[in-house]
Design a protein that fits this description.
Blueprint: H1 7-14, E1 20-21, H2 38-41, E2 47-48, E3 51-52, H3 54-63, E4 70-74, H4 75-87, E5 93-98, H5 102-110, E6 114-119, H6 130-136, E7 141-147, H7 159-169, E8 175-179, E9 201-206, H8 208-211, E10 218-222, H9 225-238, H10 244-255, H11 257-280, E11 285-286, E12 294-295, E13 298-299, H12 306-316, E14 318-319, E15 321-322, E16 332-335, H13 340-357
Parallel strand pairs: 1-14, 5-6, 5-7, 7-8, 8-9
Antiparallel strand pairs: 2-3, 4-10, 9-10, 11-13, 12-16, 15-16
Helix pairs in contact: 3-10, 4-5, 4-9, 11-13, 12-13
Amino acid sequence: MTRVHAPYLEWARTRPTPEIDLALSNLLSCTLDDLPGAREAVDLSGETPGGYALLPAAIAAYAGVDPARVATAAGCSGANFLALHALLDPGDELLLESPGYDPIAAAARMAGASVRPFERRFEDEWAIDVARVADTISPRTRVIAISSPHNPSGVLVTEEALAGLEFLARPRGIRVLVDEVYADTVAGVPPGPAALRSDVFLSTSSLTKAYGLASLRCGWAIGSAEVAAETRRVRGLVDGSTAIPAERLSELAFRDLPRLRERALSILEPNRRIWSDFLRSRPELDCVPTPSSIAFPRFRDGRDARAFVEKLIAAERVTVVPGSFFESPSHFRVSLGGATEVLREGLARIARTLDAAS
């Protein structure tokens, strides 16, 4: 048997416990007091064969689609896994952005598909070059997978790029999976699900990155009714649903999502300003501006960031994600979604580590 690995997730689960964690990209966690009615909603009742019946309806209302187009999952990674197993057969091919999120590649390989990368470049401000994607497509391509905002850079995919991908995919019978887990961290009006454009697209997301509700493991996929039904069928082979108390609390969160988004932006807006100020003070770093909750700076001189990342955890007890997990060794990923004072202190320690290396 060929063993499939997702090196980033394996590192994330086994890395040293830091004092300041700028690697974990979740928003600052909510407490029960942040979700009025949560204590009263914790109940074991409400189970149906597919979980808590009100939750898919709540996701559908949030996205503006019919509930038949929704499949629930354990987090966005779970939604990606289920959707790819619904769409791919052994011998098929997935086109995946590079840099990209390696659990998507691992899920495709576990379905028996091969993975072919197409490049997103720093020099292009991480934009998707549709011509580059077209050059990568083969007769075996069944799915193109991207993220918007892009993981690891936080950059949004443009409407023009989405239209170009649809133009490529539709006549070939290819689906485009868009991981949108960071979408609601974007300042201003967040983009709607790509799945609203047409049935070529499949959108995946969760309550984790933008709402501080990672512990509920509420994820979903939105696509055509046909693809959603197949994704639900695959989930029935795995776990059927998340724990009912978690699904009940997730449904409650959707009722209060505008206020939870205000909470998220109240954390992210000052943090993005602090990050921008930090970058202006560090001539050795270069970074495409992010509208999201993650950033992906690189060393201007092209050095491998691994030694810096290891020194940062050893000397300062601060973690960031090495860019090598995203095929970008001169980069590292920083989370901007935590408490503001924690971010400020973490960046001060990063500055000390950079100064010590100069």
